[in-house]
C-alpha cells in the first residue's frame, strides 16, 4: 500500500494477470496493468508473488500523501482484500453492489536524458495527450510523446524527483470492467 505525490483517485496496480475475484469491493476506481513491462528496473511488487511469480499481486496507491482519506482507503482495501481471499468471513455492513472500474494498460514511459531537461508544463494524472505532444526541453533535442495516452504518475511540477527513473508513464484506456 502506497500513496501518490499528486492528488489522485486510488489506483490498483496489478502484477501479473487480472484476478477479478481478488479486486471486488476495493475502493479504487482505477486499475493499471503492465507497468512492470515498461518500468525501468523492477516495481515494488516484483519481490512478491512467490519464486515463480504465480501468486497474484495487487499494489494499492490509496490516494495522495496529503489526503487524510488515503488512510481510510488503505484500511477499507485491506478489509476487502482479506474478505476476497477468505481470510475474514465478509465485509462488515451491507453487501456491496458490483462496481465499475477503469482498466488501463501502461504502454510507454517518458524518460529525460539529463538534469537540463524540464517538462514544458506540469501534467495532471489521467490527462490525455496526443502523439507528438511536446513534453520536455533541455540541452539536447526536445522530447515528444511517441504515442497518445493518459498520463500516469507525473511529478508535481516540471522537474522529476529522480532523473534515473521515468518522469511519468502513458497508458491507453483499455476498458471499463465490472467487479
Describe this structure in words.
The structure is a single chain. The chain is of the alpha/beta class and 179 residues long. Helices cover 14% and strands 31% of the residues. It contains 3 helices and 11 strands. The chain has helices spanning 20-23, 35-38, 69-85, and strands at residues 2-4, 11-15, 30-33, 57-64, 100-110, 118-119, 128-129, 134-137, 143-144, 149-152, 168-178. Strands 1-4-2-3-5-11-10-7 form an 8-stranded mixed beta sheet. The longest helix is centred in the middle third of the chain and has 17 residues, at 69-85. The protein is elongated. The protein starts with a strand and ends with a strand.
What's the short version?
With 179 residues, this protein is of the alpha/beta class.
C-alpha Rg (nearest Å): 17 Å
Number of helices: 3
Q: State which percent range the strand residues make up.
A: 25-35%
What is the average of the pLDDT values?
A: 87
Amino acid at each position: 500500500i502506497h500513496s501518490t505525490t499528486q492528488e489522485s483517485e486510488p489506483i490498483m496496480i496489478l502484477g501479473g494477470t487480472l484476478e477479478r475475484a481478488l479486486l471486488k469491493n476495493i475502493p479504487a476506481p482505477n486499475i493499471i496493468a503492465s507497468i512492470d513491462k515498461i518500468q525501468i528496473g523492477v516495481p515494488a511488487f516484483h519481490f512478491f508473488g512467490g519464486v515463480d511469480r504465480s501468486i497474484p499481486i495487487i499494489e494499492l496507491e490509496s490516494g495522495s500523501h496529503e489526503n487524510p482519506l488515503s488512510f481510510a482507503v488503505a484500511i477499507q482495501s485491506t478489509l476487502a482484500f482479506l474478505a476476497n481471499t477468505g481470510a475474514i468471513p465478509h465485509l462488515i455492513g451491507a453487501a456491496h453492489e458490483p462496481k465499475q472500474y477503469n482498466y488501463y494498460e501502461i504502454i510507454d514511459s517518458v524518460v529525460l536524458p539529463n538534469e537540463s531537461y524540464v517538462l514544458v508544463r506540469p501534467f495532471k494524472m489521467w490527462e490525455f495527450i496526443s502523439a507528438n505532444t511536446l513534453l520536455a526541453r533541455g540541452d539536447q533535442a526536445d522530447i515528444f510523446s511517441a504515442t497518445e495516452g493518459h498520463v500516469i504518475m507525473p511529478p508535481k511540477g516540471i522537474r522529476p524527483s529522480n532523473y534515473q527513473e521515468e518522469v511519468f508513464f502513458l497508458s491507453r484506456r483499455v476498458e471499463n470492467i465490472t467487479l
